[in-house]
Amino acid sequence: MLLLLGTAACDDSGVEPVSIAPTPAPATVMIQASTHASGTLDPVEANTIRVRVLDAGGETLMTSTGAFSEDPNRSFGPYGIDLDEASVSNARVEVEILRRLDASEVHLWSAVATGVSLTSGQTNTVSVEFRRGTLDDFARSAVALQSPPARLGIGESVQLASSPQGSGAHSPAWGTLTPGLIHITPSGNMTGLSAGAGKVVLASGSHVIVHEIEVRNVVESIELAPGALTFSSLRSGTTIMATVRDIRGQARPDIRVTWSASPDSVVGVSQDGFAQAWRNGSAQITASVGGVSATLPVQVAQVPMEIVFVESFASIELGEPHQFEARALDGAGYPVEAVDLAWSSSNGSLLEVSGSGMVTGRSVGHGTVTARHGSLQARADVHVRSRPPTVGYFRTSFGQGSHSQVWPIEIAGGVPVHLTSLSSAATAEIRVLFVDNPNNFEVSTNFTQYSADIEAFVRGGGVLVFHDRHVGGAAGYIPGAAKIDFMRDPRVVINVLDGGTVVTTGPGGILPETIAGDQGSSYHGWADLASLPAGARSILSTIRPAEAVTFSYPLGAGHVVYSSIPLDFYIDVHTPFAKIYAPNVVAYALHLLGFTPPTPPVEPPVLLKDVPASMAAPMVGSSTLHLDPVSSGSGG
User: Region 552-566: what's the mean pLDDT?
Assistant: First the structure.
């Protein structure tokens, strides 16, 4: 028996029956298609047709499945189906057009005819009405989409759902009318492909729903918190929070933004959103993702939080200008440029300070300098000391100063001045005249020719320090010494007669009470204590206190310090005695001028109980004088 099935183009109202001439034998399935303008395009492409014949009891007599590639909106058929049964009365014929993919099926169209009588060897005409969906969908009155989205993000996947209206099972078919914009699976999972107005189709039975969806970037906006940044110190930083919202207004913490700053010389930002100030200026920070961006303005403006001095203490000479530098620092300790500072002094008569921080000492003492900016301030301590007196040095036999005279002056705190003459013009700029006479028998005319100038220097407030080997004629060439009884008497032992002066305790150290050499002489004579002028002070003596070896006396506005110690020898060979005594005796002269000498060294004093024979000053005449008294062995 052969069943020929024919259909005409159908819409939702049904299908016109087609009469098919009977044939005695089965025929090959043929599909005849004609254009049909009505109906709705299938959301899913069909690929299978299946026909089943059931008897009155519902038992399947035959199932035939074949390929199908036509549009059910067009006429198709006839299909020839070979039925093995001789004849069937009151049969049921079911036809389904569907899409098969692996093990799954999507039912697109269904038709059923009941009460069909099929006779063997005859061609039977069956009128069917195709409807969308499965046969079970026929009992339903409608179908609905469940909360479909109005927007779909590119790359975003959303599962669609439908709900049946009425009784019966529900096997919807899903599709899209815009495949370039939306991809949808047979189970209704759709994915945005590109931007545009997309359409998805839900078909179930005779019901079709077309839903429009705007396909666009999944990110709708980016919110930044805070909305603006102001940094008051360099290298300070904070984390910016970026909230990404999708097209449905939901926060999307899974979507990361890309951070950038411009200009990045003012502010920098990490990919974690940590912003840090680099220098003063304006900038902006941008967060972006998927073509959407948000910016926030940034202002870096340092605010001074502290004033500091580069040096918090200075010791300056009287009348000496000194530039102080103070800086304003921000909260992170970085300098703030172009900050106006107001300068002031704790004592205007002591310290004079300019608007730029230049300080000049006007009197000796201690004071402070203050730098202010608003309520911020800082102070620096200033000690104004007397200007170190200038000390001219001269060796009579040389007619100029010797380099070995420099170091005691420097240790004493004086300023050495090399002299080549003792005229009033040469000594006009010095306060102390440091002279030694290395000749045992006379004093060179290099000294005596300027006797009047030297006396005027002392009476005018200067100090003459004279160390003499000759001694015997000192009354004739030492200013103010005409009535002093001098005795040339080279001996070894020297005693400290007055331990309360800088001579015995000074910047060079502390002299022991007794100084002696094992041979030779430690001094070349002495002066009778009783013959010294009024106000004289005997500091070192022989073993007899009345014999002064080193003493001082006032003369006019100045002083004379005289000693019979052959200092030229001791300072030339740098003996332990000289290291203490030579700086101390110069410091004593400076002290007479009111200058405070440096403090003594902290190490214990050298106890000079014995002077080696090699350091004893030999007796030589002026004929043996050389420029280098050390190598010549000149002494006394």
Answer: 97
